[in-house]
Amino acid sequence: MSERAIVRLRGVTKGYGAAATRVEVLRDLDLDVERGELLAVIGPSGVGKSTLLHLVGLLDRPEGGSLELDGGRVGELDGEARASLRNRLIGFVFQHHHLLDELDARDNVALPLRIGGWSARRARARADELLESVALTERASHFPDQLSGGEQQRVAVARALAASPRLLLADEPTGNLDHANAELLFALIRELHLMAGLTSIIVTHNEAMARRCDRIFRLAPQGERSGYVRTI
Amino acid sequence: MKAELHIARRYLIGIRRRTHVATVTLISLVGLALGVLALVVTLALLEGFQSGIRNELVARAAHVRISPAEGRRLERPDQLASVLQSALPNVELVRVVQGTGLVSSDADAVPASVVGRSDAVVAGVDQLLAAKIGVAIGDEVEVISPRHRLTPMGLLPVRTRLRVEQIQPAEPGSESGTIRLPLSSAQRLLWGEPAVEAIELRYPGDPWRLAGRARRALGDSAAGLRVEGLEELHRPLLVALALERVMIFVAVGLMLVVAALNLLSNVAMVAAEKRTDLAVLSGLGLPPSSLRRLFVLIGLGIGSSGAVLGAALGVAVAMALDATGALPLPRGVFLASSVPFRVDPRMVAVVVALALVLSAAVSWLPSRMVARREPAEGLRYE
């Protein structure tokens, strides 16, 4: 167990439903993610990849086990404290871009900063810098429905990095993109990961992409094997 | 707060692009506007009638009545009047005696209130009594007092014959009819000596606070006296007016409650439609308290639009109806010739505030549901 771990899961269990309809997705899961690491999480559909990301991203609570983020236990934190931690520590990129339709690209990128208490002017200036870094300066005033799929995801990446997080969580960020755009986006994430000194966890179905990460964490279905299998 | 306000504003502006939510929002907004409009117009109508009654009261009745706390006649009324006149120089002061007598004409005889006033120089009856006994100006009436005097023929009631010189409007709330006499005539009839039962004060400049001024002016002399202002003298009528206003407010206000419940379904619909967005906002760090505020702001945004629209329309409708006299009233039955409307800005403010409070309250429920969800639920819903 490394002292450099920014994410540490011990014996984490998570399921959905109750009684007869209950499905246990993760059981006794242990995982350390070191600072600066680019980790790929792969596995078949329904194996719990997104659930794992939601738990690490404080979007959901484990039923058992413990979770530490950046050296602190987060299991007992209330909703307000978890939200504050998400805002300061974590950036998300989802499979669907999940940009707010009512906001233009600039305001979407500025959103985490506005939530964090930045003034509108400062947040927009920072958003413009980030849009420049993903080569979307000229699209700053466009609404999500006026952007292509690749552009939407690049805006989503810029938004994820807006509040200068230490941990980037990406849930199949290239899942809805064609090959060329997927490659472009993955390259962008890698570049930003390195430039910003991030720790990144990327859930993907794409084995080739996963092999270009520092480490692969492979989840297997509960029925086939007990627990999970980790491959480095 | 700034982030929630920003997002709520963008959501409200963006609603028009989402047809079904826009339709429901429009219905909520119109419902609230109609509720506020109905309440404003109804209260303006009520205020129109009630202010007419209050104005009549102020115009015709005594504003303050000073009478003995015990017994029927004032002790040292001249000294009392002198104190009041020096302390309240612009106030009308009238000495009064009052009793009941049998007032008869050639046609009929009815019991009526007999009032002697120091400001009356001729005899007059009110319209109510004139109608009851069928007299007009110039006719003679006989007033028989309940007081008796000993005559060679035994005990006989004190009586007097008078010519009716005036016919006055009846006082609001009067039922028996009144004959008004010069003070000396009434004193002879009711007392047989120059007694004064009460001193009445009138000051149209500030009638509702005159009682307080009179009490202060009397100081220690007020001991043993009953000093009653308009509110005490006409308490049943004024309480009835206030009660009527409260009941009408509650009854018509229920419309507003129904409209607010419609807003609840509207906000709940936005919450369902935006479930994923809300999960993303939460994921970006918007805390549960801010999510709750976001929904209250959305509800308030719709509610305030409806309230302001309804209030503006309500005020415009009430003022237009009042100015044009579009709703005439039968002559002789009401004090006004057409239905009066009087917009009281304080009542409009209360109605708008009520609409806003209801909007915020009904938005609170979906906001609590949204804030309780873990963000991952919204993302899985996708």
List keywords for this structure.
heterodimer, A: 232 residues, alpha/beta, five-stranded parallel beta sheet, four-stranded antiparallel beta sheet, 9 strands, globular, disordered C terminus, B: 382 residues, alpha+beta, ten-stranded mixed beta sheet, 12 helices
Provide a brief overview of the structure:
Chain A has 232 residues and is of the alpha/beta class. Chain A has helices at residues 49-56, 79-89, 105-115, 120-133, 149-161, 179-196, 207-211; strands at residues 5-16, 23-34, 38-42, 64-69, 72-73, 90-93, 167-171, 199-203, 215-218.
Question: How is this structure best described in words?
Answer:
The complex is a heterodimer of chains A (232) and B (382). Chain A has seven helices and nine strands, in the order E-E-E-H-E-E-H-E-H-H-H-E-H-E-H-E. In chain A, strand 7, helix 6 (179-196) and strand 8 form a beta-alpha-beta unit. Chain A has helices at residues 49-56, 79-89, 105-115, 120-133, 149-161, 179-196, 207-211; strands spanning 5-16, 23-34, 38-42, 64-69, 72-73, 90-93, 167-171, 199-203, 215-218. Helix content of chain A is 34%, strand content 24%. In chain A, helix 3 runs parallel beside helix 5 (149-161). Chain A has 232 residues and is of the alpha/beta class. With 382 residues, chain B is α+β, with helices and mostly antiparallel strands. In chain B, strands 1, 2, 3, 4, 5, 6, 7, 8, 9 and 10 form a ten-stranded mixed beta sheet that branches. In chain B, helix 2 runs antiparallel to helix 11, helix 9 (275-283) packs across helix 12 and helix 10 (288-324) runs antiparallel to helix 11 (345-372). Chain B is elongated and about 110 Å long. Chain A binds chain B through residues 50-51, 54, 57, 59-61, 79-80, 83-84, 86-88, 92, 94, 96, 98, 100-103, 107, 111-112, 114-117, 119-120, 159, 163, and chain B through 2-3, 6-7, 10-11, 13-14, 17, 276-277, 279-290, 371, 374-377, 379, 382.
